[in-house]
Amino acid sequence: MPLLSVQGQGAGWCLVVFLLAFIVALVLKLIAAGYRSYRKLPPQPPSVPEKKPEPVYYIVERKKKRPKKEFGEPKEISFR
Questions:
Q1: How far apart are CA 27 and CA 21, in angstroms?
Q2: pLDDT at 41
Q3: Cα–Cα distance, 17 to 11 (Å, whole number)
Q4: What CA–CA distance (Å, rounded) separates 27 from 17?
Q5: Could you give the C-alpha distances from 14 to 9, 21, 22, 23, 63, in angstroms and in order?
Q6: Cα distance between residue 80 and residue 73, in whole Å
Q7: DSSP states along 23-75
Q8: For the whole model, what pTM was predicted?
Q9: What number of CA atoms fall less than 13 Å from residue 39's CA on the CB side?
Q10: Rounded Cα–Cα distance for residues 29 and 36 (Å)
Q11: Contact by Cβ (8 Å): 12, 4
Q12: Residue 21 to residues 8, 13, 27, 76: CA-CA distances in angstroms?
């Protein structure tokens, strides 16, 4: 009599494979980080902050008001 069903065995193997892949990925990351720190790079010169470009201001003419029209006599409106 088997201890686990087929689905249980499959889930167990999936868990084992996942953990194995996870551990291998972590080990590879640690190896890469160790290699980078072992192979010391020359110190980089301090970076000079870039100057922001000065803002550009455009000279814009204001809108001129139209001269007021002279109004004539009012018209009479009759509603029918």
A1: 10
A2: 66
A3: 10
A4: 15
A5: 9, 11, 12, 14, 75
A6: 22
A7: HHHHHHHHHHHHHHHHSPPPPPPPPPPPPPPPPP----PPPPPPPPPPP-PPP
A8: 0.43
A9: 5
A10: 11
A11: yes
A12: 20, 12, 10, 93
Looking at residue 1, its pLDDT comes to 47
Structure tokens at 65: 């008001």
> Which residue matches tokens 């009759």?
78
Distance CA 24, CA 13 (A): 16
Each residue of 4-58: pLDDT tens digit? 788 888 999 999 999 999 999 999 999 998 888 877 767 777 788 888 888 888 8
Give first-to-last CA distance, the chain, whole Å.
105
